[in-house]
Amino acid sequence: MIYLRSFKLSDEIERNPNIYPDHVFKHIAGEVLLFDRITVLYGNNGSGKSTLLNVISGKLEIPGAERMTSYGHSIYAQRFMERSSYQLGQDEQERAIRRLPEGSRYLKSEDILYEVKKIQQASVLREGLLYEQMNKGMSKEQAAEYEATYAFKKKLDDIQFSQEKYSNGETSMQFFEEHLLPGQLYLLDEPETSLSPANQIKMAEQINELARYLDSQFIIATHSPYVLGTLQAKIYNLDAKPLQTAEWFELDNVQFFYQFFNKHKQLFE
Known about the structure:
Elements lengths: L3 E5 L23 E3 L3 E5 L6 H12 L13 H10 L1 E4 L16 E3 L1 H12 L1 H14 L4 H8 L2 H14 L4 H12 L5 E5 L7 H17 L3 E5 L3 H6 L3 E4 L6 E2 L6 H12 L6
Parallel strand pairs: 3-7, 3-8, 5-6, 6-7
Antiparallel strand pairs: 1-2, 1-4, 8-9
Helix pairs in contact: 3-7, 4-5
């Protein structure tokens, strides 16, 4: 399913190099990105891929978006987002989609790392469990009473014991397994953080399955060669001028890996 069909960047750009985010996108001002079930935003540091994800999520009011006013030059950041536009896709009967799925979400690498950190901090885990119960309808008074029960303490101990067995990468994999669900639009910013190459590939294969068989759509910012080489995705190269799509093996970061290992190939023979 294609929930988000396209996104057009503002074509009104301030040329002042100190204006954010205009200076980041000056070379692709007014460009239109057409999305597939999986679309990758590739670029090296400073290419604007994370900023672009945040602009898209802010424009679409997807949970997880950072407020544009949290940046410096907030007036310009907000104006850039307002001057950008988008088009939603169609459902299976080719009717225009009027709203995104309610579970759609923007997940940043720091969100994932926070989940890992939460496991390592009992106080944060405690707050998370109580917050979860209140989300299910429990009042603050009931939550306070629940916190004093044996059942709560047992659940807290069980979670901490089970999670201590896992590394950061394994915890990240568990996070994806629990939070990536069918029928949603997900914006993922460098989801490979903390993952080994093997787990990066496993995660990318999971995304392929969700997109192909379970009606989820993904827009992903990454420069991981393992993720790029595994995803069945359209790839936009934000380093290119003008903006263009590319095959994963053509990208600079992937070529760098190839050249490095090719230089030392005699060690593997």
